[in-house]
């Protein structure tokens, strides 16, 4: 840019300076002469024809009336200065078109110099103010020198206004870009955004490359950039194929050279054909962006790009940070799949985009995973989960969203034709092998169809799938179930039942009955089992098999169980007062109660509050406690047993029976499930199970009690097989405490000689 003084000397000399080579560069300034006097046009052009202002020539446009002037202005929005005659077809024709220029054509930067022949036609002061008029001159004032000064000032002013405007737009763009980048996910998207922004500056198609290199000073390499050699992290337009290639691999020497130099010299390189911008990274790496350019950038744009680079470098740091946080928040660290949050988030996203028609979610649960963990160790369990994750990523499920929902549960979301039992189950058909051991795994799957749940969101869908899964699990291992109207109704029904149960519990509609247990050898009553009963207000009985699982699922079983325990121990004290001090009280304990680490304490408190003896209490647990993990269960049982409390394993043979598990559990008694007892004299399959269980209990040094004995034949058979004790309708039904007391005393009298 020429210095100010140069202009002055040029002015004083009164003649045009030689055209400096730079003058050919920019487009000429457009100057519009509006005057109805053709002479004015020629004189002005003659006076200023060879003038150069700020390295640029002048180009004159001519209009001889206001209409012509407006027409021209409409076609040429880049006019820098208008030399406008006030008096033309009317006395104020010139003044009138100013309004049109500013208000209608919105040419706010264009400078206007008014000229008038007669001083009497001077515009009013407020017109000058209102319409942003640069200068007002009478025609005779406009000699070459004065004209030149006025024009130079006006053009400079015009140029500054335009630069200001460009800066404003550029800043807006940068701010918009930064905001945009905050929400971008990951470095690649971010880098593509950078290319688009730079291309916007350069006025070209958004085509380019972004390349990342380890920071030369620290040499640190972020885990997002696995290689210290520069890698292309984003490539758009015709460079698209270069993504993830190393810089050296690109066979365009111009790009390689520019990017390499830029990264080594750690500065931006701008030339007529390309822009290679440098971004300082604070996170252990730098990056550089390359775009082609249509031509040289003006100074304003260059400066803006600089601001852009600094700003974007900061954004890049944030992006890396955010991706890392996002990674931690959304990826399961064990199996490296999206986690529950990511799963729900993605489904919600797709729902928002309306992409969920014909989509279904599957919740896969590994059967008996807790047992696998117990028996083979947690490390094995972890490895198994990873192996399952890898299998779930294989085609055709690679087109679905696969996530680890938690524990041994995996979620799959995708098209109906992919997410279905025929595809999911075979994935688990081949055994998993670890340390040369093959392990067959069965899974239960719950499905929830998106269409079935119109108000769906990710959380809801997952909840439905999990309800379906529970349903599948209730019918055994390896089963599948679809969330359906029936299940929905059942869920609602269960909720109602739970509310009723809560009400019943609070209003003393629950009570306990006691069923005698006898020695098969002596016939003596050795104890009673407490069993809960619920009679509704209209006199119906709800069987415990129906409401106990609901109480377990809701956690109500904890307070319910506590109440049963205390009531039973009170009854025990009553029996003792009645002189029946040989009787033991068996109380059923749910795995949910057992899950509380403070359970032994709760029992201890109940014992001391009721004055019952620990030796007279027997807790019946089922094999479902196995789900809590062997170590935990063993520890808790040992803790209970040190106080003298007995432990019985209930319903033996119906659940998951791991013999190694049984051997290590410190239990005193095995209770044979009634189904095996009934099979004894019925020629049904399973006939021999009772026999085996009796044998097993004996071998493990446990007492064996048969449940559900209904006939004399069953009792005799069991006794002959070596079963110790029994319980069942044949001997006595569960009864109220008062009835039990009379039953016992009647029996006592009977047995007296
Ligand atoms: P369970 O612990 O196996 O209890 C034995 C069940 O067999 C009782 O059913 C009892 O009434 C029934 N029973 C006993 N002898 C015979 C017989 O000769 N024939 C037939 N058909 N049935 C017989 P109930 O009382 O319906 O209880 C069902 C289950 O509910 C219990 O099975 C137990 O698992 C659970 N339950 C009952 N009370 C409680 C409680 O206070 N806490 C917990 N956690 N569970 C309980
Ligand atoms: Ca029981
Ligand atoms: Ca039982």
List the uncertain runs. Answer: 1-25, 216-227
Task: Determine the structural class based on helices, strands and strand pairing.
Answer: alpha/beta
**What percent of the residues sit in helical stretches (DSSP H or I)?**
40-55%
* Estimated radius of gyration: 45 Å
- Ligand roster: ligand C2E, calcium ion
β-strand amount: 15-25%
CATH class of the largest domain: Alpha Beta
Number of helices: 25
Strand order of the largest sheet: 19-20-22-23-24-25-26-27
CATH topology type of the largest domain:
TIM Barrel
Q: What overall geometry do the principal axes of the alpha carbons give?
A: elongated
Q: Sketch the major β-sheet.
A: 8 strands, mixed, barrel
What is the total domain count?
4
Question: What is the overall pLDDT average?
Answer: 83
CATH architecture of the largest domain: Alpha-Beta Barrel
End-to-end CA span: 131 Å
Number of strands: 27
Feature tags:
elongated, Alpha-Beta Plaits, binds calcium ion, 27 strands, 46% helix, disordered N terminus, 753 residues, six-stranded mixed β-sheet, alpha/beta, 4 domains, binds ligand C2E, Beta-Lactamase, Rossmann fold
